[in-house]
Design a protein that fits this description.
Aspartate Aminotransferase, domain 1; globular; 382 residues; Aspartate Aminotransferase, domain 2; 41% helix; 12% strand; three-stranded antiparallel beta sheet
Length: 382
C-alpha cells in the first residue's frame, strides 16, 4: 500500500540535513547556554548565531527574535504582553484566526481587559479592510490588530503590507500569525511596518517544539514565562539548543530552495485542481484556494459531493488506503464540530462537513495526486 502525506499544514517531515545538524548538536553542544565555562559558551554561541541568521533573512535585528516553544506560545506572549505592558485596550481581528490567537483574545475579553472587535469577512476569508480603516479612524483607543498572513485551513493570503500601513497611519499595533508563511514567503521587516509576527519550525521542515516571535525593539513586552534571564529576559527556561540549531538549518534551507520549491509545489497544486475538476463533477474549492494570486501555493481545501455516511468515513477510508490529509487544523482534529473557519464563511452544513484539506510540499509527486483522486472516486462510488 502506498504511503502518501498530504498534511504538511499540520506538520512537515524533517529534512535529512536538519536531522544531521540536530544529532551533532546533541553531541557537541550539550552545555547549558547560561553557563560561563567553555561548554556553555559553545552552546550559547550556536544559539546566538541562529538568532542572527534568522534576523538577517527577515530584515530584523537579532534582539528582535525571541526563541519560543512554537507559534502558540509566541502568539500568547505577544497578545497578553500587548495588553499588560503596552496599554492595549481594544483588539481587532477576525473569527477565522487560529485558536492560538482567538482563545487568548477571548480570555482577555471575558475578563473585561479588552474590547474585542471582529472584522467582517467575505466568502473567501478576506477581511474588510475598509471596515478596519474606519474602526481605527473613528476613535483613538490603543488598539492591536491581529490578522494572520496565511489562513491555515483555506490558504487565503492577507495583504500584510497594506494592513501594516493602515495600522501605522492610525497609530495601531499590528500582529500577524505567520506560522503558515514563514519559510514559504519572503519578508523584509525593514520595509513592512509590522510590529509582531510568529513562527514554528515544524511548518518548514524543522523540529517540533521550537519557534520564535519577532517583537520590534520599541515595544518592551515583559516575559510570559518567568524564572530566569534567558532570551535577554524575554523568556525564562534553558534553551533547547539542538532544536534551535535544527530550526536554523531548516530556515536556511527553506529560503535557499524557496523559488525552486515554490514553482514545483505550485505546479502540483494546479495539477491537483485540474484533475479534481476533470474527474469529480460538483467539487467545490473553499476560500480562494483555487486562485494562485489570492492563496498560498501549499494548501488546497475542497468540498466533495458526498452523502452523510461517505462524509463521516472519508478521512478514515483514505487513511486505510495510505493517504494522510485532514479536515482542517490539527489542533482541533479530535473535535466533532465543523471547522470554525468554514462555519464563519457561511457555507452550508453539507459543504462544511464535506471539506478536506490537502496540503503540499516539495516531497509530493503527481502520481500521488493521481492515486488519491482514484481513491476518492472509488470511495464516492460505494
Amino acid at each position: 500500500m502506498k504511503q502518501i502525506y498530504f498534511d504538511h499544514a499540520a506538520t512537515t517531515p524533517l529534512r535529512p540535513e536538519v536531522i544531521e545538524v540536530m544529532h551533532q548538536a546533541m553531541i557537541a553542544h550539550f552545555g547549558n547556554p547560561s553557563s560561563t565555562h567553555q561548554f556553555g559558551r559553545q552552546a550559547k554561541s550556536g544559539v546566538e548565531q541562529a538568532r542572527k541568521t534568522i534576523a538577517a533573512q527577515l530584515g530584523a535585528h537579532p534582539s528582535e527574535i525571541i526563541f519560543t516553544s512554537g507559534g502558540t506560545e509566541a502568539d500568547n506572549m505577544i497578545i497578553y504582553g500587548s495588553v499588560r505592558d503596552l496599554g492595549v485596550q481594544r483588539v481587532i481581528t477576525t473569527a477565522i484566526e487560529h485558536h492560538a490567537v482567538l482563545h487568548p483574545l477571548e480570555d482577555l475579553r471575558d475578563r473585561g481587559l479588552i474590547e474585542l472587535v471582529f472584522l467582517s469577512i467575505d466568502d473567501s476569508g478576506n477581511p474588510d479592510l475598509n471596515q478596519l480603516t474606519a474602526l481605527l479612524t473613528q476613535e483613538s483607543t490603543k488598539t492591536l490588530v491581529s490578522l494572520m498572513h496565511v489562513n491555515n485551513e483555506i490558504g487565503t493570503l492577507l495583504d500584510v503590507s497594506r494592513v501594516a500601513q493602515i495600522c501605522r497611519d492610525n497609530n495601531a499595533l499590528f500582529h500577524s500569525d505567520t506560522v503558515q508563511s514563514i519559510g514559504h514567503f519572503t519578508w523584509n521587516l525593514q520595509e513592512i511596518p509590522i510590529d509582531f509576527l510568529t513562527a514554528a519550525a515544524h511548518k518548514f521542515h524543522g523540529p517540533k517544539g521550537v519557534g520564535f516571535a519577532f517583537i520590534r525593539k520599541k515595544h518592551p513586552i515583559k516575559p510570559l514565562i518567568s524564572g530566569g534571564a534567558q532570551e535577554r529576559g524575554f523568556r525564562a527556561g534553558t534553551e533547547s539548543v539542538h532544536s534551535i540549531l535544527g530550526m536554523e538549518k531548516a530556515f536556511v534551507l527553506a529560503y535557499q530552495n524557496l523559488e525552486q520549491e515554490k514553482d514545483y509545489i505550485s505546479g502540483l497544486k494546479k495539477y491537483f485542481i485540474d484533475q479534481l475538476k476533470s474527474r469529480i463533477p460538483g467539487v467545490q474549492f473553499n476560500g480562494a484556494c483555487s486562485d494562485p494570486e489570492k492563496s498560498t501555493y501549499t494548501v488546497l481545501n475542497v468540498s466533495l459531493p458526498l452523502t452523510t455516511d461517505q462524509s463521516l468515513m472519508m478521512l478514515f477510508q483514505l487513511d486505510m488506503q495510505g493517504i494522510a490529509c485532514s479536515k482542517g487544523s490539527a489542533c482541533q482534529s479530535g473535535s466533532t464540530h465543523a471547522s470554525h473557519v468554514l462555519t464563519e464563511l457561511r457555507y452550508d452544513t453539507a459543504r462544511a462537513a464535506n471539506a478536506i484539506r490537502f496540503s503540499l510540499a516539495h516531497t509530493n509527486q503527481t502520481d500521488e495526486i493521481d492515486y488519491t483522486i482514484d481513491q476518492l472516486c472509488a470511495l464516492m462510488a460505494q
